[in-house]
Amino acid sequence: MKDSPMKEDTKIVRAGRHPERFEGAVNPPVFHASTILRPTLDAMDAAMSAKGKVTLYGRRGTPTQFAFEEAVTELEGGFTGFSYPSGLAAIAAAMIAFAEQGAHFLVTDSVYAPARRLCETLLKRFGVTTTYYDPLIGAGIERLIQPNTRLVFTESPGSLTFEVQDIPAIAAAAHARGVKVLMDNTWASPLFFKPFEHGVDVSIQAATKYIVGHSDAMLGTVTTTEACADAVQMATQVLGYHTAPDDAYLGQRGIRTLGVRLRQHHINGIALATWLKNRPEVKKVMHPALPGDPGHALWKRDFTGASGLFGTVFEAGTRKQLAAFVDGLVLFGMGASWGGYESLCLPSHPEKVRSVTPWDHPGPTIRFHAGLEDIGDLIADLDAAFARWNAAK
Ligand SMILES: *Cc1c(COP(=O)(O)O)cnc(C)c1O
How far, in Å, is the centroid of ligand 1 from the Cα of 35? Predict the structure, then answer.
């Protein structure tokens, strides 16, 4: 066993688990702790001066949190990792780690909208300027790099419009100028895209989505290379981030089924997207695993699977038609977030959250999350919805 590296499914089961430390318990126990006592002055001094992750004070992390962070780090393939009370908190920590007065950030125009808001509010006020770039820019990012550019923020595919980014090309251009590459890797989860094998320096997960996987706990993670570890750790500590032990526990528990869940999301997502593509009411399907999708070649080159989240643009219709479509859905819920076991359908407005790549479609943009339900039942639900859409004309 020693010489053969563990396969992914085995890592999923083992990562971050240390039963020998916890009376043999299979799962890391939930430690609720603020004060951590030390018996002697020597022990206290040793704890205070220890490097890396030690239980020193609850805010700095518990064994439950460290177990979760260790598991995510191993699956993402990074050097070390940190966890946060939400995915957005993780994005904020990662950006702030590289922010300074006068710094310049390059952020994909397809970015998760609250990350853009962070750049346009607090970071702007602190003297950081942001240029948004076409997600399909690839090596052309080179032209936008300024002497004060500190990071290129990527999200691939974008979680509303599903453009696949050429991460290796972006990373090569950024690294040639000493610029770090951050990636929101939530869509693929740590399983279907290996950020550090593609040149990413800092990988972010909204663990709220697939890692937790059950639409309950909120969590975020940042995994880094060795070179970026100190900057991210410092930002995380000075901002006072802390991960609740019950949520860290749910995060590590979600990991154990990530492989089987994602394989089913992949199958159901492709089946639903393919069925929608053949509907006359649907103008465009945005799913990189479908042949013919503009991002298909890059997806095939860099990813090992697809999650259950994809987009569509319907033919032009009225608000009444859209209401008829979504209001009567039985199996598809309507609401924010995704990555749980349940299917979702969310009308979205990319045109409101872009600044350099216009989104101009007469029909509504509708995002689907393929859950783990029976695919025939899901299709029947959508078939009935299209009948309502057409009847409401
Ligand atoms: C949901 C989401 C986030 C933010 O995660 P929260 O846990 O909701 O704060 C970040 N990026 C992407 C792509 C997301 O979908």
Answer: 31
